[in-house]
UniProtKB/TrEMBL annotation:
InterPro entries: AB_hydrolase_fold (IPR029058), Dienelactn_hydro (IPR002925). Keywords: Hydrolase. Residues 31-260 form the Dienelactone hydrolase domain. Gene3D superfamilies: alpha/beta hydrolase. Coiled coil: none annotated. It comes from Mycolicibacterium duvalii. One of its GO terms (molecular function) is hydrolase activity. The keyword Hydrolase applies. Transmembrane segments: none annotated. SUPFAM superfamilies: alpha/beta-Hydrolases. This is Dienelactone hydrolase.
Length: 266
């Protein structure tokens, strides 16, 4: 059985400008707003399937096309070219530690815009892989009530300091911690246990700062694990998900929907 996939049917693109940055944003659905930030290599069929699932569960979903070609299927060459472009893009600051990335300002502007156009007290943000940490950085804005970090991979964990880096600046993280303490903000984090791209050290840092405000789901991908995940298992909500009862990635997706529903309902 393959992971769920979908095409661009029903998604309406329009350019959005925030913090001086312009990207097309694909929108669909009704109900409270959720920003779904694509993973490498872009808004591929797995990301679109996740978006459709959120729409089916009563959300308005906005997918900003930050890189790649919307709807294009994943291939090795396509993924490598997207990574290469992301590495040199100033708005992502792929290797920088303690960095307020320009894209986080764009996403906060998008969150405010989506919140103004949808019902509910605020919006959710799901980031994945390269964009995982962007979800928490977006929560420095009061419009974001439900950030979800799935396998956050920036800064690329090539050194010890980068493995421990939370993926956003200290200024942004301090605001998020303050919101968690004073306003009851909660976040979710997802990873596979053996995923070196989303290292345990990063989650340790986030847990130390956010405490019980961060719910972490870690799926066993160690050698010989029950569900047969390989050592390179990475994408919890897309490529590794199977529509099989009891599948841990499916259960993680179900929990994300529960989290969004609880946080974004009046």
């Amino acid at each position: 059985m393959r992971a769920p996939e979908a095409d661009l049917t029903g998604w309406t693109p329009s350019p959005f400008v925030g913090a001086g940055i312009t990207h097309d944003v694909y929108r669909k659905g009704t109900g409270p707003g959720v920003i779904l930030i694509p993973e490498i290599p872009g808004p591929h069929p797995g990301v679109l399937a996740l978006g459709n699932h959120l729409v089916d569960n009563g959300f308005t979903v906005a997918i900003p096309s930050l890189f790649g070609e919307p709807g294009r299927a994943i291939s090795v060459g396509y993924a490598l070219s997207s990574i290469a472009r992301a590495c040199v893009a100033r708005e992502f600051a792929a290797f920088a530690t303690d960095a307020q990335r320009p894209v986080s300002l764009f996403l906060r502007a998008l969150a405010r815009d989506l919140n103004a156009q949808t019902p509910g007290p605020g919006v959710g943000v799901i980031g994945m892989c390269l964009t995982g940490g962007f979800a928490l950085a977006a929560a420095a804005d009061d419009s974001v009530l439900a950030p979800v970090l799935s396998q956050p991979s920036l800064p690329f964990p090539v050194t010890r300091s980068r493995r421990r880096d939370p993926g956003l600046s200290e200024t942004e993280l301090s605001v998020v911690v303050g919101r968690a303490t004073d306003d009851g903000l909660c976040a979710m984090g997802l990873r596979f246990s053996a995923d070196r791209a989303a290292p345990q050290e990063r989650f340790d840092t986030l847990k130390q700062r956010l405490g019980d405000a961060l719910e972490v789901i870690e799926i066993d991908s160690s050698k010989g694990n029950e569900h047969g995940f390989g050592r390179l298992a990475h994408s919890v909500l897309t490529n590794q998900l199977r529509e099989i009862d009891g599948h841990p990635a499916l259960e993680a997706r179900n929990r994300v929907v529960e989290f969004l529903t609880a946080r974004l309902s009046w």
